[in-house]
Structure formats: C-alpha cells, structure tokens
Amino acid sequence: MTGPYPSGSTATGAGDAAVFRDLTGIVLDALAQGTADRGGPLPSGGPDEVAARTRAAIGAVLPQHGVGPEAALREVVGAAARGAADPAHPHCVAHLHTPALAVAVAADLAASALNPSMDSWDQAPAAAVVEGEVTAALARLVLPRAAAPDALITSGGTEANLLALLFARERAARAGTSPLRVVCGANAHHSVHRAAWVLGLPEPRTLPCTRGRLTPDVVADALREHRGPTLVVATAGTTDEGLIDPLPQLAEVTAAHGAELHVDAAYGGPLCFSDALAPRLAGLDAAVSVTFDLHKLGWQPLAAGALVLADAAAVRHLSHRADYLNAEDDTEAGLPDLLGRSLRTSRRPDALKVAVTMRALGRSGIGALVEHCVRTAEGFADAVDAHPAVRRRPGRIDISTVLFRPTAADDLSDEEGDALVAAVRRRLLHEGRAVLGRAVAEDADGLRRLWLKATLLHPAASVDDLGELLDLVAAVAAVRAPAPAPTNNGDAP
Amino acid sequence: MTGPYPSGSTATGAGDAAVFRDLTGIVLDALAQGTADRGGPLPSGGPDEVAARTRAAIGAVLPQHGVGPEAALREVVGAAARGAADPAHPHCVAHLHTPALAVAVAADLAASALNPSMDSWDQAPAAAVVEGEVTAALARLVLPRAAAPDALITSGGTEANLLALLFARERAARAGTSPLRVVCGANAHHSVHRAAWVLGLPEPRTLPCTRGRLTPDVVADALREHRGPTLVVATAGTTDEGLIDPLPQLAEVTAAHGAELHVDAAYGGPLCFSDALAPRLAGLDAAVSVTFDLHKLGWQPLAAGALVLADAAAVRHLSHRADYLNAEDDTEAGLPDLLGRSLRTSRRPDALKVAVTMRALGRSGIGALVEHCVRTAEGFADAVDAHPAVRRRPGRIDISTVLFRPTAADDLSDEEGDALVAAVRRRLLHEGRAVLGRAVAEDADGLRRLWLKATLLHPAASVDDLGELLDLVAAVAAVRAPAPAPTNNGDAP
Fold it and tell me: Which of residues 345-384 of B touch A (CB under 8 A)?
C-alpha cells in the first residue's frame, strides 16, 4: 500500500472513524469540484470524448500496486462528477432520473457504512425493523382500503413488475388451470415484456392505446377472447407520456371478466402523498399489486422500489428455506425469517434512506414536493404554448411530463421532421447543454410523431429555470433544419 | 417543514453543497455514537427487545408533518447503528457479511449523490465508462485465458446465478433441442434452485456430495443418464463449509459429456487477486460463466456482484430495445446502448466503489487482504484445535470458513448435541456477544452434525481478536448443556 491510510480500515471498526471521516471529506470535495468543473447538466463532447477524458482521469482501474485511498477517491470520484448527467441541474430532464435529496443521500451513507444484509436477522437486527416500518407505511399509503396489505422492497419498477407477474404465475399454477396470460397496453413499460420472458410465460398480449392510454373497451374485447387466469397490467404514469390509464374503468372491466389487475405506478404512485393529487389515482384500490417507486417522484438515490400487495398472503410464494439463514428451529425460537421478502439473498437496506426521508419531510412535506413538480410541469407547458418556435403535444398533463417539438420540424416531411427532433436532442447532449428525452406519441391529426420529452422531477427548480431550455431547442433546430422539403414530399399516394 | 434545512435541497444542486455536507456530518456522528452505545457485535436482548427499542427510537416513519432532516437522521441512523450486527466487530463472523472498507463506503457516497442510472448513456456518461473499465478488468482477472471475456454487474451472487441459468436456457432454446437441465451438488447455493424456479426450468438435479464437495464420478453418472443441453453448476466457496469443488476434474467430465460448466465463485472468486492463492481456483478457465462477488471477500458495501462470461457474445440474450433509452437512430449516431447490460432498468452505479477500491489497493493490496483472511482462518483453526472445550470439523480449510462445536455437544445424543449447538448460537446472539453461523456438515464418522460456523472476512482482525470467541462458546455451552443423556439414549434400534 502506498496510500497514507491503512488499507484494511473499515467504515465502522473500532479506531477507524477518523479515517472514514477524512475519506468522506475527500469525496465531498471531489463532488463539489467535479460539479463546478462540469458547469452544466452533462459533460460536453459526446460519448467518445467523455470516455477518453474519463479513462485518462481514472487511469488503470486494477493496477498491480494501488495509488492509495485518497488519490483513488480524488481521481475516480472527480471523473465521475465531471462526467455526470446531473438531474439536480434544471436542464437535465430526459428521464425518470431524479435529483437525490441531500437528506436521503446522507442516510444512504449509513446504509453503506453499516452494511446490513436484509436476508437474515443476525445481519440486520435493527435494519429489518426499519424496513418493516417502511413497508407497512407504504402499504397503508398506497392501498389504504385493503384489509391486509403488504409491500416488498425491490430494486425498482422492473423487479416489482417481475414479482407481480411471478405471483400471478404461481396463483395460476396453484389453481391448476391453464398458464397465466398477461394483457397490457402498448404504453406499458418494457419490463412487463421482459418479465414474461424471464419467467417463461407467453409474450404478453399487447393492446393498442388511444392517445397514449389503455382503454376499457379493448381490454374487454381481449378478456372475452381469452379464458383462464389473466393479469391485466395498467399504468399510472406511462414512460413516454406520463399518462394515467383510466383505472376505475379498467378495474371494472377486469373484475367483470374475472381477471386480476396489476398497476404499474412506478412514476405516478407518489401522487398519493398529496391530498390534492391522490384522486388522480382513483381505482388503484382494485389492484392485486401496485408497482411503486421512490427513486423517481420521491427523490431517493437508486434503488428505492417496492411492490405493494393488496393481500399479504401473496408473499408466501417467496417462502424459502436455507438453513444457514432461516433454519426451522431458529424461526421457532423467534428469530425473524427475512429470506422470504425478496428474490435476492444479500440485499442492501434501501429502506433506511426512505425511512429517514419520510420522517424528515412527513406526508405533507413529500406531498408538497410532488405538487411542486406537477405545478412546474403545468407552468412549463404554458411556456411551451407561449413560445413561437416550439409546440406542445396536445392533451392533458397527468403528472409532470411535457412533450413538445420545434415547429421547424413541422415544415418538413414526417420522416425528416422526426429526424430533426432526434438530431436536436443529440446536439444538445453533445454540447453538454441539455438532457432532454424523446418519445413517439400521437399528434392532433392522429399520426404518431417524435417529440422531445421533459420529465419534471426537480423538487426545487422553477419554470423560469426551464424556460431557457425552449430557447436552446429553438436555436439548435433553426440551425439544423434543412431547407424546407419540396411541396408534396412525403405525400406519395 | 419544521427542520432548519430546505426540504428540497439536493445532494449536488447549485448552492446545496453546504447543506449536504452538514447532513453527512450528522450521519458520521450518529454512526460513531450508535456504534459506541452498542458496544458489541450486535444489540443485546433478542429480536423482540431490539424491535421495541428501534421502533421507540425512530417513532412514526411517515408522520403527517416531518421532524426535519437533522432530527430524522439522528433518530433513524442512530437506531440503525445501535441495532446493527456489525461485521467490523471481530466477533461478528456468521455469514459472508463483510465489514465494508472505509474507502469503498466513501466512494459509494458519490454513487448515491450523483445518482447516475446505468440504463442509458444520457443518465450516466462517465459512470458507464467506469463500469466498462471495471467489468473489463474483472473479466481479465477471472478468466485470463478466455479470448473475449466480459462481465456484467449484478446485485450479488443470486442474480449472477440467475443470469447464468437464463443464458444457458436461451442457448438451449436457440439450439432447438430439449429444454435446459441444471445439475448441481447438494452443496450448491439455494439461489440455483430459486433461479430454476423463477425461470420456469425443471428443478435442478441435485447430486450428493462427499465431505461437502461435488465429485466428478457422480456428475459423470448424472450426465450419462441425461441427454440434451445441460448446465453443471460447481461451487468455489460453498456457503456452509467454504469448500472448493474439484474444478479441474469437474471441468473434464463436463466437457467429456458435452455439457457446460458454470462456477459459483461468489465467495472464493477473489482468491484470484492473490498470486499465492489463485492456484486454488485452477479449472475455473473451463467455465462458460463464473459468479463473482466483491461484497464478500472484497469488502464492498452491498451490492457488488458480477457474472463473468467466457464469451462476451452471451450478453446478446439481454439485448433489448426501448426507444426512450436506446432508440435505433441514437445507437447508430454513437450513443452507447447500456440497456442490454442487465435485467434491471434503473440501476445504481455499484461499479464506482469497486473502481475506487481496486485502484486504491491494487491487485497486490486486495490480494494481501484476502491472504490475511485465509491466514486468520488457519490461525483460528489452530486455536480451535488447541482449545479443550471445542473441536473442529475435520478436513482442509479451502478459504476462510471454520466449523467447530463445543465438545459438550458430543456428550449428548446426536439430536440433543445439535440442539445444544443451535442454542449456544442463539444465546450468544440474544446476549449481543457474538454472531456465529451454523451449518450441518459431515463429521469424521460420516454422520452429519450441526456446527458453529465462523466465516472470517475481516481485513484487519487478528487470531487473538477471535480467540475470545472460543471461551464464550465454551462458557455458554457449559451452562446450557443438560445433564449427560443416559447410556444408549438415541441408540434405539
């Protein structure tokens, strides 16, 4: 070891506290310096240049002899910060990629330092209690009318959707009838399809949507065609457009046909923290399971997902014996059995930061931040409408996603217009000036076009902070738009 | 909000650095205080008392109005620290539950603060480069002779084993022959069975082991009985005994029958950092995939798993298009496609702390820590052998796991002896004095008995630190041992 610190210093060992404190100080400095050096929402230069700069800054990642903790932290954390797409910058709005709250990140430091593993009591005596309190609170929050709800912590919406399909598969298997069939809209998250593939289920029946939403009539038709156990997957907060499917009507038609309803509320679920916004999730109560996520509209660092279950008994499908973790006599003697709470074995205590954040802000405080995001999106939509060089995808904003495109794209053929939208997005990325998303969605004329997407998740950014984005888009579009296409181009019969 | 901090402060936003620094300071104080208050390897009093104390300390986890970040951090982090089973204490040795290095935990703080998500380039421009460097280095380290190795970051051994089975399932499906059959030893980790269940595969064929190891002859017999695509799962570092299956012989017999070999080296894999110990993993080169994990013998906070692949082409099975993350025209325009690197979508940059640790310590520094653990285990085994009131499970120590039991248990019937061993473990847990594991393993007479398990992962603890454990075990066993059973008890015909 060449560094000044003993290489075996732990985060919590006797006598190690001073070393640990010094090293976290180096990280805080490197983060602040790297962010200042970057000076924008993401590094400029595009993928190849960022890769070259990052590789040069970090050097060999596994040298024969180490450079010591201080130097390694400065180099690698500094490079990561300089090269970050930082959702705490108001112009970083592409994805459900949240700026993490300082309080949540600070709490997460304790998770790493204490390093409890959630698969047995003797690795996580208190952390298991914290997780239990969090899952109970989330279950009551999301499904307040369920008699015995429960929630499982997941690595995100993808794992939650997988668990939902797994539980439905097992219910179908125990019923002994035909295998499970999954029905979802074209607006469902890709993880629904991926989960079916992983689980060895048939490809989900994917139904067309109308203006981005799954409608009850097409679901009814599909359910009439198919007998046997069926899970209908609806979405509260679609990835592309941030829309909420008509849950009450979908719940009704699903129940009428004896099918089950799963709602992927990875994005929209946290509306239930706000009394004003919770009514937008009406119908959620009819779901057997709900995908919920606090690393989106909940400002947690990754990962903070959950699957909320209307009936706690569903968890039994994960019940599982491994003598080293939950021997029968240990369970009988009162040692809690944690293994059946996840598909993972070793598992980070992601509930810790959630507990701290919920207790710090309270339901009202989190609700206020959610309302801020929704209001900011509405204000941004107005700004789009008022701007001469961009136009908005028509329709209601259900949560905090706004689709828009430069009007210069409308002067081109459909194909060239879409290409312009994509090029504007990539140009802004390349120049390190803005991180905007993209989505194909139905326009007022019923045609599907490519749009720029702003997903507004920042708990403090204002509409003014975002206004500049529209000028950026307009300016880049004006430069990159080719000469208008000849008349009738793209209108071939 | 009642707290002194603005509720919307982010970890990296402009002007937020001072708040974030203050909050991490509170966490460091709460960790140090909580650890001092606990004063031992785990809290005393047993599950119910720990739960009651923890609940009282943290209060309502989702109050209507928050208590503010400072108070919430003090309360919840303090409770988590007081109630932790702390692997940085030398008497916490039950599981593959590692004391996290200060440098790794400090680096992990940057992961949470920057919060890159590994599913698209525009959420993780530099973090994706860091992950690429780490996976390339791990692939070369673990499978140095493979022509085009690759590695995927996972949430641990469980996800790595699942991916290994998934890739094998897909190879079998594309070959169009019969479905995949998995063959493993009784010593295989439970996640192999769980993965088969999740993936809709038949229950693995589970073969008996000899003194804790899978032997080539039983594998050969099983492969002769079964035609069609087969994945043999061997283990380098079994959970119960820390043993390494005879990999060269298993590789030979597997190849001879046209089957494939997967090696679960979640525990033993890091021996390859040490030139002295790497030969114990001879035969690994024959594997199509290797489960590898740095949150065990690598001192990373959870999670730091990987699946190392002999042929990078296997990753294509995860290839997956979701326009918002990897639209075809974006990929063609040079934006790296990250989505096909995991089953997860949103994903924390777990590679960041690994990069910092590997660069800080180097291969030699990590190797030296691994050697320290192996040497400590050997020294501890000698201490067991020298102690009058405990005896060791006979046989070689392959890595750093030592099985032993109080000799008082040998004076009882088999059943009562095992019950004593289990009771000693639970008593030490209840009193907050030691966290020992348990394992059923073959004794010298061929009978399977229950043992106490010490898994020695501490990068700095000495044999002397551990010696006290044996006196603790002996003292508790002496108190709890019932009067010797009458002669012939348990010997009924």
Answer: 345-349, 352-353, 355-365, 368-369, 372
What are the backbone dihedrals phi and psi of residue B116, each rounded to the nearest 5 degrees, phi first?
A: -65, 145
Instruction: Report the C-alpha gap between B110 and A100 in whole angstroms.
Output: 11
Q: Is the pLDDT of residue B363 over 70?
A: yes
Q: Over the stretch B104-142, which tens digit does the pLDDT of each residue have?
A: 999 999 999 999 999 999 999 999 999 999 999 999 999
- Residue A229 carries which DSSP code? -
Q: Which of residues 170-199 of B touch A (CB under 8 A)?
A: 189-191, 194, 198-199
pLDDT, mean of residues A378-391: 97
Interface probe, candidates A48, A108, A122, A299, chain B, greatest B C-beta count within 10 A: A122
CATH number assigned to the domain comprising residue A310: 3.40.640.10
Q: Which residue of chain A is at minimal alpha-carbon distance from B135?
A: A61
For residues A79 and A113, state if they share a domain: no
**Bridging pattern class, strands B260-264 and B289-293:** parallel
Chain B contact present for A416, CB below 8 A: no
Query: Does residue A238 lie in a domain region?
Result: yes
Q: How many residues does chain B have?
A: 493
How many other C-beta atoms are found inside a 10 Å radius of the C-beta of residue A479?
Answer: 10
Task: Note whether B374 and B394 are same-domain residues.
Answer: yes
ipTM value: 0.96
Of A320-324, B272-276, B288-292, B482-486, the range with the lowest mean pLDDT is B482-486
| Domain end marker among B316, B333, B361 | B361
Which segments within A332-476 are labelled E, that is strand?
390-392, 401-406, 437-442, 448-455
Whether the per-residue pLDDT at A486 is higher than 70: the answer is no
**Number of compact structural domains in chain B:** 3
Both B167 and B300 in one domain: the answer is yes
- pLDDT at residue B488 in the model: 46
B238 and B163 co-located in one domain: yes
pTM given for the model:
0.96
**Does B465 fall in a domain?**
yes
A339 shares its domain with A396 = no
User: Which band of pLDDT confidence, cut at 50, 70 and 90, is reported for residue B489?
Assistant: very low
**B265 in the same domain as B170:** yes
Tell which A residues from 214 to 253 touch B, by Cβ distance under 8 Å: 239-240
- B104 within some domain: no
> B363, A422: Cβ pair inside 8 Å?
no
Interchain pair B141, A11: CB under 8 A: no
B269 close contact with A: CB closer than 8 A:
no
Is A102 part of a structural domain of the chain?
Answer: no
**Is A15 in the B-facing interface, judged by CB distances under 8 Å?**
no
Nearest by Cα to A169 from A115, A229, A114, A222: A229
Q: Indicate whether A457 and A317 sit together in one domain.
A: no
Q: Are residues A314 and A407 in the same domain?
A: no
> For the segment B61-114, what is each residue's pLDDT rounded down to a tens digit?
999 999 999 999 999 999 999 999 999 999 999 999 999 999 999 999 999 999
Which tens digits make up the pLDDT trace of A270-296? Answer: 999 999 999 999 999 999 999 999 999
The Cα–Cα gap between B318 and B338 comes to 10
Last residue of a domain, one of A337, A361, A385: A361
Would the CB atoms of B20 and A105 count as touching at under 8 Å?
A: yes
Q: Which domain holds residue B77?
A: 17-84
Reference B326, options B116, B118, B121, B128; nearest CA is B121
Selecting from B27, B159, B368 the residue whose C-beta is nearest the C-beta of A107 gives B27
Per the document, the length of chain A is: 493
Q: Which structure tokens are listed for A237?
A: 């907060």
Contact list in B for residue A306 (CB cut-off 8 A) is none
